[in-house]
Amino acid sequence: MRSQLSPYWLWLLLAVPALAMVPTLTGTDARAFHGLLHPTGEFAARFMIVSLLATPLLLLTKGATWARWLKSNRRYFGVAAFFYAALHTYVYLVGKGSIDRILAEATDFDIATGWIAMLIFIPLAATSMDYAVRKLGRAWKPLQRLTYVAAVFTALHWASLHGWRGLAPTLVHFLPLIALTLYRLWWLYLRARPARLA
To answer: Which residues contact 39 (CB under 8 A, 6 or more apart)?
Structure first.
C-alpha cells in the first residue's frame, strides 16, 4: 500500500514550491511576478541535479536503501525539473512582454544556453512515462543521457547571468554533481578490479 501511495506523496512534495508561487503567478504585482524568475530556475536545476545524483550515490553508498529509493524515483525529479524549467520560461516570456525583446537577446550567451537546455528538456520529459520506455526500448537510455548535456547548458546559463555573477551559486549547486559524476566514471572505467582466475 505504501509503495502505491508514495509517488503521490512525492509529487505533492515536489509541487510545494510551485504551490507557494501560485498567488504571485495569478496576482497583479508585476515586480513580484518577475521575482519568480530566479526561484523557478533554481528549483529546475536542483531537481535535475538530484535526478542525476541517483546512480553515483548508489555506487558510493554501496546500495544504501535511500540511494536505491532515489534511483527508482529519479524520473519524478526529472519531470519536476522540466515543470519548473517550463515555469521559468513562462515567467521570462511574460516578463519580456514582446517577441521583439525576446528575439533581441535570444543569441546572447546567457540566454541562448538557457534555450538550448529547455529544448533538450522537452523530448526528455515527453519520453519519461512508462509507455515511452516500452516503445523506445533500448533507445530510451541513450536519449535520457541527454540530461547530462542539458545539465551543462543549465550550468552555463546560470553561471553566465548578469556578467557571470551567477558563477558562485552555480558552483555550489553543481560541484557535488561534478564530483560524483567523476567518481562514477572512475568506478566504471578506471578502478582496479580483482584479477580473474584462469
So the answer is: 17, 21
Task: Go through the chain and tell me how many residues it has.
Answer: 198
Angle between helices 74-96 and 109-126 (to 10 degrees): 140
Global pTM?
A: 0.89
Please report, in angstroms and rounded to a whole number, the separation of the first and last CA atoms in the chain: 48
What integer is the mean pLDDT of 6-12?
85
pLDDT score for 194: 66
* Four-point Cα dihedral 156, 158, 162, 166, nearest 10: -100
Rounded Cα gap, residues 183 and 163, in angstroms: 31
- Kindly state the average pLDDT of the residues 171-178: 94
What is the distance between the alpha carbons of residues 131 and 141, in angstroms, rounded to a whole number? 14
Residue of 152, 161, 168, 148 lying closest to 52 (CA atoms): 148
Tell me the per-residue pLDDT of 39-74, one tens digit each, with 9 for 90 and over.
999 999 999 999 999 999 998 998 899 999 999 999
CA distance 64 to 67: 5
Nearest to 119 by CA among 101, 97, 146, 99: 146
Query: Which among 187, 154, 186 has a CA at the least distance from the CA of 173?
Result: 154
Pairwise CA distance, residues 108 & 93, whole Å: 15
